[in-house]
Write a structure and sequence with these properties.
Strands 2, 4, 5, 6, 9, 10 and 11 form a seven-stranded mixed β-sheet that branches. Strands 1-3-8-7 form a four-stranded antiparallel β-sheet, with no helix packed on it. The protein is built from no helices and eleven strands. The protein is an all-beta fold. It is globular, with a radius of gyration of 14 Å.
Length: 117
Amino acid sequence: QVQLVESGGGLVQPGGSLRLSCAASGNIGSIVSMGWYRQGPGKQRDLSATITRGGSTNYADSVKGRFTISGDNGKNTVYLQMNSLKPEDTAVYYCHALTTSVVRHYWGQGTQVTVSS
């Protein structure tokens, strides 16, 4: 099993920045990639960014150029640096891990990000 614990959400003004963290524990060796998804009010959960074990990254068009995903293998932690935040970035952000285990997908509990003046 893999456990994911997120932190770093909060309230920020438009144009501001936040950094989310996701600490992974458990069967770390089974993780192929990690990422951040978000679910806004009344919306489906959508991909924001992913990073593979080898460091390759992928971003949704809506966050490209503003968000940066990175990983610290020594700390088993993935970060999402969010800059130039907009009200439409308001959502619950979920950390995700894709693994080679029988259970392929693991999710964190979610952290709220609110962008408002």
